C-alpha cells in the first residue's frame, strides 16, 4: 500500500497552511466590530454581514456572476473538449498554431482584452449585453479548460476506445460512454477552474459590464476603489461559506471524489 | 466465395515491416489460429482487420465487401484484446452489457444475456466489480464475455485464454468450439499455446517476421511442416547430423553408430535426420530399428508426460514418454532409444535450421 | 416608453449618495430612468475613448484633471445656459465652457493621529513635513497621474523656486528627499485607506473628501491644510458629445448644481459646495472646503500648462521617481 | 524431397498472387477529424479574439498625443520607442523573471502536493482538494488584503517574528518582488495542482510498485518514474501559471505597487492613466509575442524531450 | 531455518477474504509454484510478500527478519508483474537498467548486464524501443529481464511467461532453472500452466478460494492429491461411480461391468474410482485387467498427444495417448479400455468433487 510518509504529511500541512492563511485572516476580519479593517480583538460582531443586506446590488451582482460563470464555463467546456481531443490525439498541420491560439487569451493582459472587447462589441452592437459578457468570458476561460482536458486526455489508453468501437459504438457513443467518463476528472476540474476564473474576473469585466449586469467582483472592485472596509471581507467570507456548502452538496449528490477522481478508481 | 479474404496486407512502423504481404482466405464458420513467435505480427494483423491500424497496403474483404473502407464500429466484429482493454469505469456487467446497448437490445433481454455471458465465464458473482478489483484471469474472462455476448459473425481473439488455469481454459475452449459450431461464428484466434491451437483450429497459420510460413490443418502442419521454421516452431524436433550414403537396402543415412533407410532418393553427402521427441521410444539393446545408445541426462515431469534429455554419440536428444505408469529410466541410466523409419524425416544438412526459431524471436 | 439616461461616475460612497439623494428626485421630476455606470475617472475616460463615435454614456463625471483631458479630446459638448450657473463660485467654471465643477475638495496632508500621539510627533504643519526621516517608508502619495500626486509635485516645485512652468525643482525634491520616505505611490483611495488601517502608512498627501470618509469610519485619522496652503481639486461633469439624450443630460448637470443635490453631496460625500446659496450647519462643515473665505485660501494650479507638459512629466515620473 | 526444398515451394504457393502484382496501395485516409473537432473553437476565436486582437495590433501602429488623442497614422514608432528605452527593458525583464520564478515555485510545490493528494484516503482527499482550490475561490481583492494583513510591516507574521525576537525590524514584503512572487505563487499554485492531478489519474500504481521492488526509494520513484509520466500535467500547469503570472495585473498592482511595475501594470497605466492606447497596445502586443514565443518554445522542447509520454 | 516463512497470512478486501490464513515455508534456493484457479488469491499473496498490499493478519519472515516491517523498496526482491508494469516512458533497455542504477552499478557494467539480460530474453535488437511499440510477448520479456538482471535472492514471478510461444517459453523455463541452480535464487512462481509448474518446481502449492489445499512435489501432488479439488485441478481425472464390496480377493469396487481390487480397507457402499486419462490404455477384449467397453465419441489432436472421449456404461472417460505413430482407434469405433490397479485411486463417493474446481472459479 502506498502511503504518504511523515515528511510528505508535514509538507502537506505546511502547503495547506500557506494556502489557507490569508483566507482565514480575511474571514476573521469579517467578524470585526470596528468600522475599519482589524482583527476582531474585542469581541465578534456580525455587523458587516448585516451590512451586506443593505447593499442589494451585491446580491444582484452575485446572481449575475453565478449565471455568467455557469453559462460561460459550460460553453467553454463544450468547445474545449473536442479541441483538446484533436490536439491530444492527432498530429496534424497547424496543431501547434491552434494550440497557441487557444492559449493566447492567457497571455494578453486582461485590461487590453477589456478595451479590445469594448471597442469590438460597441462596433458590432453587442456592447453592454449579457451575451457579450458571456462571449468574452468564454474566450478568457477557455485556455484553462483546454489545458486541463488536454492533460487528462494525452496518453489515455486508446485500446479501450478501440474496444468500444469494436462493440459497435459510433464515435459519438464511444466518446460519451468511454472517453468522456475517463477524462471526466480533467473535464470536471477544467469546468471548475473555468467557472472560478469567470467568477473572479475583474480587470476585463469592468469594461464590458453594463450597469444592468455587473458581476460581483466588479462591484467589489468599485466599492474598494473608494473605501476599503470589512464589508469586503464579509462578502468574501460569505462567498467562501457558500462555496464550501455548494461543494458539500455536490459531494452528497454526486460525489466529489467521483467527479474529480473518476469512477472505479482508487 | 471465401468469407474473409486478406489480400497482401502490409503494415510498416517506420521502416520496420511488422506485417508483410499477408494473404489468407477464411471460410465462413471456420476457426483459424495464428501462430508464431512473439513479435511476429499477429496482433498487428488482427488490429488491421479490426480497423484500429491503417494498413499500408493490401485489402481486407469480408463477405465480399471492402472492410477497410468501413469504420471500426461498423465492422461488426467481436474482439478480445491481448491487453483486455476493459472499460475501467464500468463494472464487469456494464462492460459486458456495452455491446448489447449499442445494438439497442431491450433492457430485460440485455440483463439476461449479460447474466448468461458472465455465467459462461464463471463470473456470475462478480458482475458488480470494477476491473481494477479483479484478478488478471477474471479480467480476461470479462473481456471474453464482452466479445462473445454480442454474437459477432467474425470473432478476433488475441490470446484470450493466456491467464486462465488449465481447467478453466479447457472449459472456455469447449465453449468457443460450441459457439463456433452452433452459431457458425468465424473465428481468428491468436494463441501462444500450441496444444490449444491444435485442439481448436480447423487450420493453423504459422507466421514468422511478418510473413506467413504455412497454412494447413494442425496435423498436417505438425506432421508435414512446410519448412524448417515450421518444423521447429510447432512442437519440438530433434535434428541429428548424419551422412547420407548408399547401402545394401538402397539409400541410407548413418547417424553415429546407427543406420536408417531413406525412402526418397537423395544425393550422398552430409544430411540431417529430424524426429519428434514423442516418436522416440526406449528399446531393448539389440532390438529392431537402429537404436542409439545414450545416457539420461535429465528427466522432467510434465504432468501427463515425462521429458527426457539423452546424451548420445550423435548429440543430445529429447524424448517424451507418457506418464502412464510404465517403468521409465532414471537419471544417469544408460539406455537405448529408437524410432520407426516412417516417423523420421531426412533433409540435406542445414546449419541454420536449429537456430531459426531463436533468431526469429 | 421611458428614456434611460446613462450617467458614468465614481463608485463607492459617492455612488451611494447619488443613488439615494440625487437620482430619485431627478427621475421623478423629469420622467426618465437613470442608469448609473460606476467606475473611477480613468476607467470612465477610457470607456469614452473606446466608444468614440458610438457613445453609450450621456453624462460623465470626472476629476478636474481628467476632465480637462476629456474636453481636450472632444468628448464633451457645450453646456447650455441655465440660471443655476449664475449661482456658482468662479472656481466652478472651467475655461472651455464644456464642463463644470460641481464640487470641490482640497489637497492636504492626512496623518494617523494615534500614531503621532503615541510617538510624540507634533502634527504636520508644512508640506515639507513629509520629508521628515521619521516617516521612512511610512508615507503614501498618489502618483502624478492622479490629481493629488500632481498637486504634490507642483507644490514641491513651487516651494523650491519653481512652479508649473519650471517643474525641475519638484522632481529633484521628490527624488532626493521624499522618495526614501515613500512606502507606495498609491492611486487607489481604497488601497490608501487600507494602508492607514493596517498601520503601514501614517502620513499621506490626500484629499479632504477621502479623509473625511476615512475619519467617518472611526479611524483616528486627521486632515490638515499645510501652512503654505492646500490645493483645490474639483469634480466635474459634462454632457458627452454625441449623447442621444442631450436635453436630459443637460438637465441632470443642472440638477446636480441645485441646492438639494449640493447639500447632499457635501453632507454624505464631503464635496465642498460650489453653489453660493447652499448653507450648511456648522457641524456638517468639518473637513469640507466651505464658504468663500475657506475656498479662497486654497491654491489653484494651472491646468493648461500642466496638461501641455503632462506627457513629459509622466514619462520622467515613471522613470525617475517610481523606480 | 527434403524439408528445406519443400519450404520454398510451399511458401511460394501461398504467396503466389503477390508475386504477380505489387500489393495494392491504400490511399491514406484523409484526416479531417482534428480540424472538425477544433472547428467550433476556431470559429469562436477567429471572430471574437482574432478580430479584437487585430484591432489592438492596428492600434499599436497609431500615434497618440495628449490633446490630439489617437491619430490614425501607421507607423512603428511605438515599437522603436519601447525597443530603444531601457525603462521598458527593465519592466519586461522583471515581468518574465517574476513569471519564471513563480512557475518554478508552483511546479516545485504544486506537483508533489498533487502526488500526495492522490495517495490520500477517501474523505480527506476530497477535502484537501477543496482547500487547494481555496485561493481561487475568493476574489483577488480579498486575497491580497489577507496578505497585506499577514505580511505587512505591522502584519501578523512580522509581529509574531518580532515578538519571538527572531527579527529586529519588520521583513519587507509589501511592495517588494518577493512579496509579489509569494502572492502570485499562492494564487497560481492551485492551477498547477489541478493540472498535475488530472494527469496523475492515468498512472498505473503497479508501475510505481515495480520501481519500489527494484530498490528505488520513494523519492527516486517520484523523480524517475512518476515525474516523467506526469510531464504533460506539469507542462499544462506551467503554461497556465507562466502565462497568468506574466500577464497578472491585480497582484503586482496591489502587492508590488507602482514602483514595481510589470508589463500588465505598465499597459494599464498607458491605457487608463495617460490614455496613450497605442503605446499600451504595443506593450500588450510585445507581451503577447514574448509569451507565445516562450511558451510555444518550451512546449515544443518538453514535448520533444518526453515524446513517449505525449503519444 | 527456512528462508521464507509465510505465517497465517490473510488479506481481506471489504468483506471478501482474498487470502485466508496462508502458511508456507520455502527453503533457500527452492522454486515453488503457486497454482490455483483464477481469482484464488495468488497475485494477492505475492503482492503482500512484495509489500504492495498490507496484510490484514499474519507474518512474513525472510531469512529470519520480519519482512512486513520493511518498506517495499528495501525488501530487495525481484518481481515480474502479471500486468508487466513496465515504465512506459523508458525504453526496454532503460527499463532493464533501472534496478541496476538503483544499486549504483557502474555505467560500463550496467550496460553490459543490460545487454546480456536483453539477449537472454531474445530482445537484443529491441533495446531502444518503448513498451508501447512492442508486442505483448516482447513486453513480457522486458519485464522478465528487468527482474532477472538485478539477481535478487528472492524472485516473485506472476505469470511471467503467459504470453510467450512454446519455444520461447521453454527457453525461458530452462533459463529460470539455470539461474535458480547457479545463482541459488529462491523463486515463487505463479502460473496457470500446469506443465510449466510441474516441469520447473521443486514443490507446488495448490490454492483455492484463498486457502492452501496441498503443498507437495509435483509428482506427489499429481499422483497423490490431498483431496478431490487437487485431483481435479491438477490434470484431468476420470471419476467413475461404483460400488465397494467384498469379493473373493478381498475388497473390490465394481464399476459398470468391470471389477477392480481395492488395496486399502474400505467400508462397503457407494464409492468412486479415480484414474487419470493418460494411465488408461486401449486393451484387447478379454485381455488382462478389468477393461471397460465403450465407443470413441471424439478424438482431438493436441500435438504430442491425442485426447479421446469415450462413452462407457460407467459414464464418459477421457483417455490420452501419445502421438507416437502407433495405430489409434478412429471416431465411433468400439474399443475396450483398461488400466493397472495401482494407477487408480478409490475414494468414498463425493458428489461435490467434480464440480469443485468449477465453483471455485
Ligand atoms: N482491490 C481489490 N478489491 C476487491 N477485491 C479484489 C481486489 N483485488 C483482488 N480482488 C479479488 O481477490 C481475489 C484474489 O485476487 P488475485 O488477484 O489474488 O487472484 P489470482 O489468484 O492472482 O487470479 P488470476 O490467476 O486470475 O490472476 C479475486 O477474486 C479478486 O476479485
Ligand atoms: N506502434 C509500434 N511502433 C513500432 N513497432 C511496433 C509497434 N507496434 C508493434 N510493433 C512491432 O511490430 C512487431 C509485431 O508486433 P505484434 O504486436 O503484431 O506482435 P505479436 O505477433 O502480436 O507478438 P506477441 O505474441 O508477443 O503479442 C513487433 O516486433 C513489435 O515490436
Ligand atoms: Mg500480440
Ligand atoms: Mg493474478
TrEMBL record, chain A:
It is a multi-pass membrane protein. Residues 62-250 form the ABC transmembrane type-1 domain. It comes from the Bacteria. Keywords: Cell inner membrane, Cell membrane, Membrane, Transmembrane, Transmembrane helix, Transport. GO terms for cellular component: plasma membrane. InterPro entries: MetI-like, MetI-like_sf. Signal peptide: none annotated. It is found in: Cell inner membrane; Cell membrane. The chain crosses the membrane at residues 7-31, 66-88, 100-124, 130-150, 178-196, 231-250. Pfam families: BPD_transp_1. One of its GO terms (biological process) is transmembrane transport. Its main location: membrane. Belongs to the binding-protein-dependent transport system permease family. This is ABC transporter permease. It comes from Azospirillum lipoferum.
Automatic annotation (TrEMBL), chains B, E:
Pfam families: ABC_tran, TOBE_2. InterPro entries: AAA+_ATPase (IPR003593), ABC_SmlMolc_Importer (IPR050093), ABC_transporter-like_ATP-bd (IPR003439), ABC_transporter-like_CS (IPR017871), Mo/tungstate-bd_C_term_dom (IPR008995), P-loop_NTPase (IPR027417), Transp-assoc_OB_typ2 (IPR013611). Residues 4-234 form the ABC transporter domain. PROSITE patterns: ABC_TRANSPORTER_1, ABC_TRANSPORTER_2. SUPFAM superfamilies: MOP-like (SSF50331), P-loop containing nucleoside triphosphate hydrolases (SSF52540). Keywords: ATP-binding, Nucleotide-binding, Transport. GO terms for molecular function: ATP binding. This is ABC transporter ATP-binding protein. It comes from Azospirillum endophyticum.
UniProtKB/TrEMBL annotation, chain D:
It is found in: Cell membrane. Keywords: Cell membrane, Membrane, Transmembrane, Transmembrane helix, Transport. Residues 92-298 form the ABC transmembrane type-1 domain. Residues 1-12 have a biased composition (Polar residues). Pfam families: BPD_transp_1. PROSITE patterns: ABC_TM1. Its main location: membrane. It is a multi-pass membrane protein. Residues 1-27 are annotated as: Disordered. InterPro entries: MetI-like, MetI-like_sf. The chain crosses the membrane at residues 35-59, 96-117, 124-141, 180-198, 234-255, 275-298. SUPFAM superfamilies: MetI-like. The keyword Transport applies. Belongs to the binding-protein-dependent transport system permease family. CysTW subfamily. This is ABC transporter permease.
Amino acid at each position: 500500500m502506498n502511503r504518504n510518509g511523515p515528511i510528505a504529511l508535514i509538507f502537506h500541512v505546511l502547503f495547506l497552511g500557506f494556502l489557507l492563511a490569508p483566507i482565514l485572516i480575511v474571514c476573521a476580519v469579517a467578524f470585526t466590530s470596528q468600522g475599519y479593517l482589524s482583527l476582531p480583538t474585542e469581541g465578534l460582531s456580525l455587523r458587516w454581514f448585516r451590512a451586506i443586506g443593505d447593499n442589494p446590488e451585491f446580491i444582484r451582482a452575485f446572481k449575475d456572476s453565478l449565471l455568467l460563470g455557469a453559462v460561460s464555463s459550460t460553453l467553454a467546456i463544450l468547445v474545449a473538449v473536442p479541441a483538446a481531443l484533436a490536439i491530444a490525439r492527432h498530429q496534424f498541420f497547424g496543431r501547434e498554431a491552434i494550440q497557441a491560439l487557444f492559449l493566447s487569451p492567457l497571455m494578453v493582459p486582461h485590461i487590453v482584452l477589456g478595451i479590445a472587447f469594448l471597442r469590438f462589441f460597441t462596433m458590432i452592437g453587442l456592447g453592454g449585453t449579457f451575451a457579450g459578457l458571456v462571449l468574452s468570458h468564454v474566450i478568457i476561460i477557455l485556455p484553462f479548460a483546454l489545458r486541463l482536458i488536454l492533460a487528462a486526455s494525452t496518453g489515455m489508453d486508446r485500446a479501450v476506445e478501440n474496444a468500444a468501437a469494436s462493440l459497435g459504438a459510433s464515435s459519438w457513443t464511444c466518446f460519451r460512454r468511454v472517453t468522456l467518463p475517463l477524462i471526466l476528472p480533467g473535464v470536471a476540474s477544467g469546468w471548475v477552474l473555468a467557472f472560478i476564473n469567470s467568477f473572479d474576473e475583474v480587470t476585463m469585466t469592468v469594461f464590458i459590464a453594463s450597469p444592468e449586469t455587473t458581476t460581483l467582483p466588479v462591484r467589489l472592485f468599485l466599492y474598494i476603489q473608494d473605501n476599503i472596509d470589512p464589508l469586503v471581507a464579509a462578502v468574501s467570507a460569505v462567498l467562501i461559506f457558500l462555496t464550501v456548502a455548494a461543494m458539500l452538496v455536490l459531494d452528497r449528490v454526486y460525489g466529489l471524489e467521483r467527479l474529480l477522481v473518476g469512477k472505479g478508481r482508487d | 466465395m471465401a468469407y474473409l479474404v486478406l489480400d497482401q496486407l502490409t503494415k510498416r512502423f517506420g521502416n520496420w515491416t511488422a506485417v508483410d504481404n499477408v494473404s489468407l482466405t477464411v471460410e465462413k464458420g471456420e476457426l483459424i489460429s495464428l501462430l508464431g513467435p512473439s513479435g511476429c505480427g499477429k496482433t498487428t494483423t488482427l488490429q488491421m482487420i479490426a480497423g484500429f491500424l491503417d494498413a499500408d497496403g493490401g485489402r481486407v474483404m469480408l463477405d465480399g465487401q471492402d472492410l477497410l473502407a468501413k469504420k471500426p464500429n461498423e465492422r461488426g466484429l467481436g474482439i478480445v484484446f491481448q491487453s483486455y482493454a476493459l472499460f475501467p469505469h464500468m463494472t464487469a456487467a456494464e462492460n459486458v452489457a456495452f455491446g448489447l446497448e449499442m445494438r439497442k437490445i431491450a433492457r430485460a433481454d440485455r440483463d439476461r444475456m449479460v447474466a448468461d455471458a458472465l455465467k459462461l465465464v464463471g463470473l456470475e458473482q462478480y458482475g458488480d466489480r470494477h476491473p481494477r478489483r479483479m484478478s488478471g484471469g477474471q479480467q480476461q474472462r470479462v473481456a471474453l464475455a464482452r466479445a462473445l455476448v454480442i454474437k459477432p459473425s467474425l470473432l478476433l481473439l488475441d490470446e484470450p485464454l493466456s491467464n486462465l488455469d488449465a481447467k478453466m481454459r479447457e472449459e472456455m475452449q469447449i465453449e468457443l468450439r460450441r459457439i463456433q459450431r452452433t452459431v457458425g461464428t468465424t473465428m481468428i484466434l491468436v494463441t501462444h499455446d500450441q496444444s490449444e491451437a491444435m485442439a481448436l483450429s480447423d487450420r493453423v497459420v504459422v507466421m514468422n517476421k511478418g510473413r506467413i510460413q504455412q497454412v494447413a490443418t494442425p496435423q498436417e502442419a505438425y506432421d508435414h511442416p512446410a519448412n524448417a521454421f515450421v518444423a521447429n516452431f510447432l512442437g519440438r524436433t530433434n535434428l541429428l547430423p548424419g551422412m547420407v550414403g548408399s547401402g545394401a537396402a538402397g539409400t541410407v543415412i548413418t547417424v553415429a553408430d546407427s543406420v536408417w533407410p531413406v525412402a526418397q532418393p537423395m544425393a550422398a553427402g552430409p544430411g540431417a535426420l529430424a524426429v519428434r521427441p514423442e516418436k522416440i521410444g526406449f528399446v531393448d539393446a539389440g532390438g529392431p530399428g537402429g537404436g542409439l545408445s545414450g545416457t539420461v541426462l535429465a528427466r522432467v515431469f510434465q504432468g501427463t508426460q515425462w521429458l527426457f534429455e539423452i546424451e548420445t554419440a550423435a548429440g543430445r536428444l529429447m524424448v517424451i514418454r507418457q506418464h502412464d505408469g510404465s517403468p521409465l529410466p532414471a537419471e544417469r541410466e544408460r539406455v537405448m532409444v529408437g524410432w520407426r523409419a516412417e516417423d523420421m524425416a531426412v533433409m540435406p544438412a542445414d546449419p541454420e535450421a536449429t537456430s531459426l526459431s531463436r533468431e526469429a524471436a | 416608453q421611458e428614456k434611460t439616461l446613462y450617467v458614468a461616475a465614481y463608485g463607492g460612497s459617492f455612488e451611494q449618495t447619488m443613488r439615494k439623494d440625487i437620482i430619485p428626485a431627478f427621475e421623478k421630476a423629469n420622467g426618465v430612468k437613470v442608469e448609473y455606470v460606476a467606475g473611477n475617472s480613468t476607467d470612465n475616460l477610457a470607456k469614452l475613448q473606446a466608444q468614440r463615435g458610438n457613445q453609450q454614456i450621456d453624462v460623465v463625471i470626472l476629476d478636474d484633471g481628467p476632465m480637462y483631458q476629456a474636453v481636450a479630446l472632444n468628448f464633451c459638448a457645450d453646456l447650455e445656459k441655465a440660471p443655476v450657473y449664475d449661482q456658482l463660485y468662479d472656481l466652478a467654471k472651467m475655461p472651455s465652457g464644456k464642463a463644470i465643477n460641481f464640487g470641490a475638495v482640497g489637497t492636504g496632508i492626512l496623518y494617523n493621529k494615534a500614531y503621532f500621539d503615541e510617538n510624540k510627533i507634533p502634527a504636520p504643519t508644512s508640506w515639507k513635513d513629509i520629508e521628515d526621516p521619521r516617516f521612512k517608508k511610512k508615507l503614501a502619495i498618489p502618483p502624478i497621474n492622479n490629481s493629488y500626486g500632481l498637486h504634490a509635485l507642483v507644490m514641491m516645485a513651487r516651494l523650491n523656486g519653481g512652479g508649473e512652468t519650471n517643474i525641475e525643482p519638484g522632481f529633484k525634491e521628490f527624488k532626493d528627499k521624499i522618495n526614501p520616505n515613500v512606502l507606495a505611490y498609491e492611486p487607489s483611495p481604497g488601497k490608501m485607506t487600507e494602508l492607514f488601517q493596517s498601520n503601514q502608512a501614517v502620513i499621506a498627501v490626500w484629499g479632504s473628501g477621502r479623509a473625511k470618509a476615512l475619519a467617518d469610519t472611526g479611524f483616528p485619522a486627521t486632515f490638515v491644510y499645510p501652512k503654505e496652503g492646500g490645493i483645490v481639486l474639483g469634480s466635474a461633469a459634462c454632457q458627452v458629445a454625441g449623447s442621444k439624450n442631450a436635453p436630459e443630460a443637460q438637465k441632470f448637470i443642472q440638477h446636480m448644481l441645485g441646492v438639494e443635490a449640493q447639500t447632499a453631496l457635501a453632507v454624505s460625500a464631503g464635496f465642498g459646495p460650489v453653489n453660493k446659496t447652499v448653507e450648511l450647519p456648522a457641524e456638517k462643515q468639518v473637513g469640507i472646503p466651505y464658504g468663500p473665505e475657506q475656498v479662497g485660501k486654497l491654491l489653484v494650479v494651472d491646468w493648461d500648462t500642466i496638461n501641455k507638459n503632462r506627457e513629459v512629466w509622466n514619462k520622467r515620473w515613471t522613470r525617475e521617481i517610481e523606480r | 524431397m527434403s524439408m528445406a526444398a519443400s519450404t520454398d515451394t510451399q511458401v511460394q504457393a501461398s504467396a503466389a498472387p503477390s508475386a504477380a502484382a505489387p500489393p495494392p496501395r491504400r490511399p491514406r485516409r484523409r484526416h479531417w477529424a482534428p480540424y472538425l473537432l477544433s472547428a467550433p473553437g476556431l470559429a469562436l476565436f477567429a471572430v471574437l479574439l482574432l478580430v479584437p486582437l487585430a484591432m489592438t495590433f492596428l492600434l499599436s501602429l497609431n500615434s497618440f498625443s495628449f490633446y490630439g488623442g489617437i491619430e490614425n497614422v501607421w507607423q512603428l514608432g511605438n515599437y522603436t520607442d519601447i525597443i530603444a528605452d531601457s525603462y521598458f527593458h527593465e519592466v519586461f525583464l522583471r515581468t518574465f523573471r517574476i513569471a519564471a520564478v513563480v512557475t518554478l515555485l508552483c511546479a516545485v510545490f504544486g506537483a508533489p502536493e498533487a502526488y500526495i493528494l492522490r495517495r490520500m484516503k477517501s474523505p480527506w482527499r476530497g477535502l484537501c482538494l477543496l482547500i487547494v482550490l481555496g485561493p481561487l475561490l475568493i476574489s483577488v481583492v480579498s486575497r491580497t488584503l489577507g496578505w497585506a494583513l499577514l505580511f505587512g510591516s505591522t502584519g501578523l507574521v512580522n509581529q509574531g517574528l518580532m515578538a519571538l525576537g527572531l527579527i529586529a525590524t519588520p521583513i519587507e514584503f509589501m511592495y517588494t518582488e518577493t512579496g509579489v512572487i509569494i502572492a502570485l505563487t499562492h494564487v497560481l499554485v492551485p492551477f498547477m495542482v489541478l493540472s498535475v492531478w488530472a494527469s496523475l489519474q492515468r498512472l498505473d500504481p503497479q508501475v510505481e510498485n515495480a520501481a519500489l521492488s527494484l530498490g528505488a526509494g520513494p523519492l527516486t520513484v517520484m523523480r524517475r518514474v512518476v515525474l516523467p509520466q506526469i510531464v504533460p500535467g506539469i507542462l499544462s500547469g506551467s503554461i497556465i501559471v507562466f502565462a497568468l503570472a506574466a500577464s497578472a495585473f491585480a497582484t503586482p498592482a496591489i502587492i508590488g505597487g507602482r514602483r514595481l511595475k510589470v508589463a500588465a501594470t505598465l499597459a494599464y497605466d498607458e491605457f487608463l492613466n495617460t490614455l496613450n492606447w497605442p503605446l499600451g497596445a504595443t506593450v500588450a502586443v510585445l507581451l503577447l509575442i514574448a509569451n507565445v514565443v516562450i511558451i510555444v518554445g518550451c512546449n515544443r522542447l518538453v514535448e520533444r524531450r518526453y515524446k513517449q509520454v505525449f503519444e
